[in-house]
Amino acid sequence: MTENLVVMLTAFNLEYEAVRRKLVDVGVEVHERGTRFEVGKIEGTDCRVALALCGKGNSPAATLVERAVQQFAPVAVMFVGVAGALWGTPLGDVVVATHVYAYHGGTSEDDGLKARPRVWEISHEIAQLAAHLARGDRWGDSPKVHFGAVAAGEVVQNSRISREARWIREHYNDAIAIEMEAAGVAQAGHLSGSPVAIIRGISDRADGSKATEEDRVWQPVAAANAATFAVQLAQHLVAQQKERIVKDRSAAPSVSNVAHGSVGIQGSTVTGSTVTMSLGTAAPVPLVSELRALLAREHASGSLNRPTYEAATAELDLADAAAGSREAVLPLKRLRGLVADLPELVVKIAALIAAAVGS
What we know:
- By secondary structure, the protein is an alpha/beta fold.
- About 40% of the residues lie in helices and about 20% in strands.
């Protein structure tokens, strides 16, 4: 897990820009399939955010969650944007999903359409932390933060009297907001093992008012409020993760014994001792050194900005530390994404990945 990074995805550019304005020292990292992430820091913190645009719909959202988890191994994945209110939630307020309904599941029978819902709950840790933040001084006044079910479908819901609107009221009447991506995010998070958070600002009432002047006024407000809460939640999640790592390290047994050469260990229990062994297969040292030199050269020439250069060298350090094992593959892939526009570096990284995969 990348202990100080959270992924944030949005459906369209207005939402994307609302998050992007919260970041500084931004660089670009490209997934091997072409997805572009802007990676920056939340100002005044060491919390990093990888931001990407996925477009509308549950399927694109799910695909990008999978790619983001593969690329970054983040602390959490957040979907940040706007949504329609179902039960009078005030415009501009923020909704944090406690659980997500994929409301289009069903079976058509002679006596009508029967609901076959799927539902995912967000992680207990994220729910607890989000509720704690919502009680804080920053969120004591408007806009308020609401917690409840979010309904995610495959159509734009813009009516309170349509057949679909009646269906939702009948089968999902505890949902307080409706949108089109949360089910894909929740499913992909469940399959990849990554915690997810759905954070939405209310921009309309799902009542026919979309694309009106009121909607155009409230969309940027709702997107900005969702982004503000999302970055606060991200900072606290990262801080919490770091505290956990420090505690885990302090609780680990001390290390003292270092052995070189052929070592045999046999016994039912070994305590208070760690044996460090060099791996049989290691990354080609000249190639790693050459990569470091090339990164420094590209940074000096201006081809890599400082945040990207620092992120790239950090990934190379991780890969070097895991030399000779498959654990080197993920940081090498992240490194390749960071320098995807520099073919000479990409070729050398590919050779390291091949060596790691074959180890």
